[in-house]
Amino acid sequence: HAAYLATRGLDVVDAVSNALIKSGYDKETKQQVFIQSEDPPVLSAFKKFPKFNRVFEIEFDIRDVSKPSVVEIKEFANAVKLRRSSAAQVDGFYLTGFNAVVERLRDADIQVHVGVLKNEFMSLAFDYWADPMVEIATDTWSVLADGLVTEFPSTAAAYFRSPCSDIKRNMSYTIKPGEPGALVDMAAYGALPPAPPPAPVLEPADVHRQPLPLCPTEPMFRTFRCRLPPKETGKNAEYTANLAADG
């Protein structure tokens, strides 16, 4: 929310940049630093740190991305974070396929991160068998995501540390990814809800690149009092109390 905070006199981009420099992350060589934002101007401001990964977050569902949009994204980001429903098509909790957006972005040398993953079975498609590791396997081997964003990092760590996660090893047991259409074809007639409208294709107009507003020298709010403009010229400004209720 950098643009909103700037109008309130808070330069969060400068604050984060200074904190990273003070902590030495601008010279970090053993760890990767990811800067994620839905605002392209924020990511552009971090181009002065060439070692940082700039992740453009797309907060709405898309099924594909146009070539002009890819060109726009590459101007300020080297990675994109997609919603789970943008990477895999889930209709009524049934896995029906995968969208072309991941392949399109990876072909343009843009990393794709998928999230946010959760362990609760109500957030999982039936094809994942209520097992969050199956979803991780699907995003890893079928979606071919470069990174995962999860609320349960221990689950993801356990998956990647397990030898059963590598389907190329031909072990007696392997955590296999979900198969689109494997269950939907067996569902009884009428079990599926009406098909939702197709998700849109990301276009350049969806990639807002308006510059961040400058922070005002005079903050626009006070802790206990906010200032209102005068109703008529020549009269003193009116004040209203802005007290928090306790109860």
Automatic annotation (TrEMBL):
PROSITE patterns: GP_PDE. GO terms for biological process: glycerol metabolic process; lipid metabolic process. Keywords: Glycerol metabolism, Hydrolase, Signal. InterPro entries: GP_PDE_dom, PLC-like_Pdiesterase_TIM-brl. Residues 1-160 form the GP-PDE domain. The keyword Ribonucleoprotein does not apply. Its EC number is 3.1.4.46. It catalyses: a sn-glycero-3-phosphodiester + H2O = an alcohol + sn-glycerol 3-phosphate + H(+). This is glycerophosphodiester phosphodiesterase. It comes from Phleum pratense.
